[in-house]
């Protein structure tokens, strides 16, 4: 018997009406706006109205440094959420909305997997309630206003060689990475080089994720720096009178989307998935809703603990004022083996046979990555729990090896089989998280807001990534000076680097030391509220493969979606 | 006292829950999917389930040749729908969804006006249920697949100089009209010239409007011709294996959106507004729903009767199998005066004073346009009713002049004040339409499907536009031959010309004769199901003005939208 596909499992789900899902969170139906029969938006008024309800425990799910395949962090987030109901606790799950570009590219969908999924997976993977499209519309309206401003005389004196705002689309389209626009005749704009990023990478998406209210969203949009004048002064969306319309386009998108898991656990889906040049976490307003529901709010942070969790602590929590009670660090046998440096995992190819053979030694050899990521969590005063996300190809001795490492560090640990078993496969994990979250909390930021940008970069690179030193390219250093001068110095930093290593170099597996961390460039997402130094080339517009999912997705004779996985 | 703004009036509306609006049409709540509290999508299953209900009268609203300001066709459509309830009849209204590009450009909204509006106007003008975004996503996915196919070896042998498929966005952005994409390095695609149209102009939008079912939508998407090989053979979306994913992206968008007027008349809003290179009518599936509801279905066709109504008869009705019972021809004093050739109306400028002065003579002098458009309706065997859309600046003598012209042609006629009075201002019109629609029906197409494309063009140009002759440019003639050879010859034609004249020349007002109608180029929307010859340059991507609505639209302190009008 073959294990059913995610889409097949998703189809068997018995879904509660959204009002019932909301009721299980104590949300009044008057604060729910239905979008189709299975999804509802939560009105932001619910946040204020529920402010006096008891606060749930706040648990972030992060991971060791993943392989290019990912280590099942969303699946574990969903599985953990489901598991709490098996131990008499009520959980809410918060995740980001998948991007349609990758859905039709290599992935074919991203909603958890197996028996730990958010359903209906077609809704989650396609359009959902249109938030991603609203971000596209708001972003590109601002882009049109910039070019129009230049065409109509450029009263603000925008330096056409110093425009930071590109355009966005939620599609994998490499042909749009670099374009020359404004061609044609005199009435067709001013020719200049520009390009498109995928919508998830838009600063508008980061604004949506970090806004604490509609008024805060409006203010952040106004602060977006789109360009500089010849004198080097920033030009904002407010200067261009575009921020009001952008806020209008986003006012529904700011309402979190309420869905459910296969086991009817409530799930708040909100904001996009981009974790390279942005902070890669679901939205603050979703967490504001979830933190006043049930016993536990389980929220997911992107990539490994050096990336998503560090930004969760230092960017998201700094903005929201919420403090976490525990952090789950997802680990897999395959990733730890890869961190031994003895195996290579390539996206789109089957795992090498020697990686699949029973070999606890390799797990031990790669365990330094797990140790460092657990430390990274502890560095913020948060209790770590190691979740061993089990695969059918794992061996008991290998799980035992991970347990030993975790226990030796004094961290709680649990083997999880939620992919094949749903919530009951993560009961041990839920119990461990429940204990960890009940310990006294000692949460603190890694750096103070009033440190300089350079100090912040150095602190993250040395204390979290394990670098000996930081080398900032002269042009980047000059830009950092400019940012301090423009008053952006108090912003947190979001370092854009590979997620495949603790360092800047994807080839350095395990827990590298003795390296100098390079900053090649630096940019400011002033509206979202962070500065992002770049430690390498960041791809912000994916392409399609030679056999993309788009070729397999279709409607069957009954009008049902096939080919999403 | 100043007359309140459209947005202010819209805010005063007492809205029925969508289920109650549906119930008034006899639609079972199980066939309604709520999108927020005020809009629902109608499941297409409702069409089959309601097939044995009595058929409503089918009334199309068209107009004389408009000025650049428009003559209130949507407002009249809404007002007429509202008026029927004042004479004991129940009507459903069908209109197209406004495009957000113009909403943030010059217009600031398009939902009817005054006391004849579709509400909530913010929902209608912004995103609605995301159909426009779904068209954008499906269109651009196909574009990405085309370029990816070329990058990955071009197995289908696409001629890169003969790619018909551009990209689309729902924004007024002249800088995107002409671009070079695929720049950068080897991994960033293949450089080539292309560009963006506004989403409403997408062939995918025309497919959505003309599809008769989900299966038919899927089939039409597959037939879209995106390019030609070096040998001149068409390459389709099916050849590129993209049509299945496109259909998946559009499956919710194919469900019509149910809204209501200020007087709670049900309104089906569906498909986009583009009427230049497309047929410019609301969707067939919306009319399939509306035709089995109440006593009358009032549907709007774009521009004057030479454009939207001709295509309504010969493209839309040919596809749907529905036959109209009456046609309303909207006329205004200002437009008829402009057709005298003695006044000039310019968009964005106040009307000239001499046009506003009482002058029934000028109305008579421009009346030939009304006569011709009434004839154009009659040419299809349909009963015309002239609706005089009254403005506060009109004089009774001028209304009388229009009445005389209509009566002299044996057409019913009514003065309407629905803008200031709502439905009761259009009671006389509703009574006239009710009578006209009850007359024996003699509907027929202007040309048979098996006429050649050239014959079809000639028939429309001479019999509808009033041309003496047609001159087809040699390159266009050659393309027409190719279309016949590829089997596209049985498609109807949708002539792309100015909407500001019965002829190809916007300066020729009234009812010009003695001209030769030029065809400069010709293209095929094979998926949508028509060939469109071009009688001039068609702008398919608008730009922003120097003071666009985007600068005025914002949120007020209560989070309410301001600045839409």
Automatic annotation (TrEMBL), chains A, B:
ATP binds at residues 67-74. One of its GO terms (molecular function) is ATP binding. It comes from the Bacteria. Gene3D superfamilies: Domain 2, N(10)-formyltetrahydrofolate synthetase, Formyltetrahydrofolate synthetase, domain 3, P-loop containing nucleotide triphosphate hydrolases. Its EC number is 6.3.4.3. Belongs to the formate--tetrahydrofolate ligase family. CDD domains: FTHFS. This is Formate--tetrahydrofolate ligase. Keywords: ATP-binding, Ligase, Nucleotide-binding, One-carbon metabolism. GO terms for biological process: tetrahydrofolate interconversion. PROSITE patterns: FTHFS_1 (PS00721), FTHFS_2 (PS00722). Pathway: One-carbon metabolism; tetrahydrofolate interconversion. It catalyses: (6S)-5,6,7,8-tetrahydrofolate + formate + ATP = (6R)-10-formyltetrahydrofolate + ADP + phosphate.
């Amino acid at each position: 018997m073959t294990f059913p596909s995610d889409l097949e499992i998703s189809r068997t789900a018995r879904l509660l009406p959204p009002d019932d899902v909301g009721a299980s969170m104590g949300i009044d139906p008057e604060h729910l706006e239905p979008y189709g029969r299975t999804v509802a938006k939560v009105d932001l008024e619910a946040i204020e109205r529920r402010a006096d309800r008891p606060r749930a425990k706040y648990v972030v799910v992060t991971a060791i440094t993943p392989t290019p395949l990912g280590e099942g962090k969303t699946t574990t987030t969903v599985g953990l959420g489901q598991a709490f109901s098996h131990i008499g606790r009520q959980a809410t799950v918060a995740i980001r909305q998948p991007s349609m570009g990758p859905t039709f590219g290599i992935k074919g969908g991203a909603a958890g997997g197996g028996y730990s999924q958010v359903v209906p997976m077609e809704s989650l993977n396609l359009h959902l309630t249109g938030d991603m499209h609203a971000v596209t519309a708001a972003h590109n309206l601002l882009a049109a206003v910039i070019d129009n401003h230049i065409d109509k005389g450029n009263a603000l004196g925008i330096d056409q060689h110093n425009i930071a705002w590109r355009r966005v689309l939620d599609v994998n389209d490499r042909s749009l990475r670099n374009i020359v626009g404004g061609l044609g005749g005199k009435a067709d704009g001013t020719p200049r080089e520009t390009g498109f990023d995928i919508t998830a990478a838009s600063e508008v998406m980061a604004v949506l994720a970090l806004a604490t209210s509609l008024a805060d969203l409006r203010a952040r949009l106004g602060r977006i720096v789109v360009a500089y004048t010849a004198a080097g002064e920033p030009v904002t969306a407010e200067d261009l009178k575009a921020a009001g319309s952008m806020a209008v386009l986003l006012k529904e998108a700011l309402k979190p989307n309420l869905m459910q898991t296969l086991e009817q656990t409530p799930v708040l889906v909100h904001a996009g998935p981009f974790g390279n040049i942005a902070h890669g976490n679901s939205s603050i307003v979703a967490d504001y809703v979830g933190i006043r529901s049930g016993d536990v709010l389980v929220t997911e942070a992107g990539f490994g603990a050096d990336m998503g969790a560090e930004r969760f602590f230092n960017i998201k929590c700094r903005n929201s004022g919420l403090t976490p009670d525990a952090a789950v660090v997802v680990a897999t046998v395959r990733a730890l083996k890869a961190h031994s440096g003895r195996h290579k995992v390539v996206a789109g190819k089957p795992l090498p046979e020697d990686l699949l053979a029973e070999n606890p030694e390799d797990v031990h050899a790669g365990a330094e990555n797990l140790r460092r990521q657990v430390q990274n969590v502890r560095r913020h005063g948060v209790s770590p729990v190691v979740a061993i996300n089990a695969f059918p190809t794992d061996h008991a001795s290998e799980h035992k090896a991970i347990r030993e490492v975790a226990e030796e560090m004094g961290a709680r640990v649990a083997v999880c089989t939620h992919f094949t078993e749903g919530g009951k496969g993560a009961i041990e994990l839920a119990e461990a998280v429940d204990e960890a979250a009940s310990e006294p909390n000692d949460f603190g930021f890694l750096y103070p807001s009033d440190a300089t940008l350079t100090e912040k970069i150095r602190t993250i690179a040395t204390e979290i990534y394990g670098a000996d030193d930081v080398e900032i390219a002269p042009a980047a250093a000059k830009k950092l000076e400019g940012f301090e001068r423009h008053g952006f110095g108090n912003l947190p930093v979001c370092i854009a680097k590979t997620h495949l290593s603790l360092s800047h170099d994807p080839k350095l597996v395990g827990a590298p030391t003795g390296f100098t961390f390079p900053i090649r460039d630096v940019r400011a997402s002033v509206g979202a509220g962070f500065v992002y130094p770049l430690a390498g080339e960041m791809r912000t517009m994916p392409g399609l493969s030679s056999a993309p999912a788009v070729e397999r997705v279709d409607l069957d004779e009954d009008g049902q979606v096939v080919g999403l996985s």
